[in-house]
Amino acid sequence: MKFSRREFIATSAIGSASLALDLNAQSNNAPKAAGPGKNILICSANGHNYLDRGHAVLEKGGDTLDAIMEVVRGPEEDPEDDSVGYGGLPNEEGVVELDSCCMHGPTRLAGSVGGVHDIMHVALLAKTVMEHTGHVMLVGEGAKRFAVAHGFPTMNLLTEHSRKVWLLWKETNSNQDWWGPGPASPHFKFPTNGTKSEDLKERIREMEKLAEQIGIEPERRMAAIHRVLYPPTGTINCSALKANGEMSGATTTSGLAWKIPGRCGDSPIIGAGCYCDQDVGSAGATGSGEENIKIAGAHTIVENMRHGMSPKEAGMDALKRIVRNYNGDMARLKYVSMKFYILRKDGEHAGVSMWSGTKEAPSKFAIHDGTARFENAAYLYEGEPQEWPPMPELQTSTYSTL
């Protein structure tokens, strides 16, 4: 059948109108976010001191993602937090590389940046990518140039203290790098028990002498040595829920200390480090980024809740997926650290952790639903994870499955 141009346009218009009506009907029938009747923020423990200012944004009717930015910029600006933003521990070349992602529930938009140098507020940069581009992720030099074009100031993110700790690592432990294989690899070989405690004590004494020569303050030397021997990870994740049901989530980090340049963990990965669907809930993570990427942890948790699991059940299931990837091998799993922070659309929340922590320092998360506080996380295993790289003579923790 042939159509004239006028008939084709008329037919197309009718079809478009019908499609619009159909989509509108679907939208009207879609599940709505049921608000909890109060404003709620949940985040990793390092965001606790900044929850009040994020909650104040929500109380004034502000946007959920703007409230989150108020929380996460606190650790980003804190030179004493060496896992996020300014003062973060650098990669193996002495360069601080930052990663972040965010999701905005009301618009269902997302933004992400990875491997960014010289820009402090990368969570806000991820939000700017979301708002001002047709992309979701920008990385490396392209992300930095985009930041500069949008007025973000550039700065050296390596503080004097972080530089000195990096020098200590470079001088004493740079042979312990991240070139692998890691414990997840079938080619990973466990260390022998040849290293003696006395040998380690002597090594630490030598490191203390070098730390003094480098100029690390006496009260900070042992912490610096610990960071050299056991490279830390560190991140802040935060989710927000307004009384009316609007939600958002974000994650930001300086990543793994002494990492291979260009390494990105889960923090800039939508669906791993952060995922939000305000019809269901929001989730995010801190810990072993590579393991979380492999299970798309945040997305898995939200989908679990979509299918009826509670926040705690959804998070514990995600942890068990990591365990499955190791075939339950506790000799390897004891090096894996993972925490999830979970907020459902009705306000129910949970923090879950691979490990319980100690009685003196239990695994915990921060929450603000009118009062800022810490709550203990649910956990899969008793004890603390072993720090990496493994040193057999220091492995004194006990591990037992609940």
Automatic annotation (TrEMBL):
<dbReference type="Pfam" id="PF01112">
    <property type="entry name" value="Asparaginase_2"/>
</dbReference>
<feature type="binding site">
    <location>
        <begin position="286"/>
        <end position="289"/>
    </location>
    <ligand>
        <name>substrate</name>
    </ligand>
</feature>
<dbReference type="GO" id="GO:0005737">
    <property type="term" value="C:cytoplasm"/>
</dbReference>
<feature type="active site" description="Nucleophile">
    <location>
        <position position="235"/>
    </location>
</feature>
<dbReference type="InterPro" id="IPR029055">
    <property type="entry name" value="Ntn_hydrolases_N"/>
</dbReference>
<dbReference type="InterPro" id="IPR000246">
    <property type="entry name" value="Peptidase_T2"/>
</dbReference>
<protein>
    <submittedName>
        <fullName>Glycosylasparaginase</fullName>
    </submittedName>
</protein>
<dbReference type="GO" id="GO:0016811">
    <property type="term" value="F:hydrolase activity, acting on carbon-nitrogen (but not peptide) bonds, in linear amides"/>
</dbReference>
<feature type="site" description="Cleavage; by autolysis">
    <location>
        <begin position="234"/>
        <end position="235"/>
    </location>
</feature>
<feature type="binding site">
    <location>
        <begin position="263"/>
        <end position="266"/>
    </location>
    <ligand>
        <name>substrate</name>
    </ligand>
</feature>
<dbReference type="InterPro" id="IPR006311">
    <property type="entry name" value="TAT_signal"/>
</dbReference>
